[in-house]
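Assess this one:
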Amino acid sequence: MEALISRAAEYLATNIRTLKEAPLTFVVAIWAAFVAAYFVVEWRYAAILEQSSATIDTLRARLVVAERSAAELREKLAAASQPSQGRDPDGIYQFGMQVGTVQQPRVDEDAGMAWFVAVTGATKLKVERDIEYRDLILHIRTIGLENRPTVVGQGTRALQMVTCDIIDRVPSP
């Protein structure tokens, strides 16, 4: 390293006269080299930062999907761990608790469909989540009409003409 420094100093000493005669050209050349180096480094690291940012965004999206899946699996586990004895045969359940009662059910397992003329007492029913009816797991496809009447000061909820897809069976313990 010392040899390199001494050779550079020796080179500058022998060419100092040229440098003194053309200082503006020398300064402009040095400045241009620094500016070019800055833009090359900035361009390279901007691309790296952009790629890292895209990777972080992708991983965040995957995390949201994984958290949602984990929450759904926890809900299913909690519902499956609830004893099915003592359940109302006309009740629909979510998260291990009854969230409504069906009226005039019709189930066609070959078609993979279930229809209910009405679901009453559905105040806590989350229609975007799967429901359990007897030993079936159903996903609500359509609701014909939703009513929210008030009975003796209590708000209730009734769904009419409910169509569901049969997506699975409740696992037996």
About this structure: Residues 87-169 form one domain.
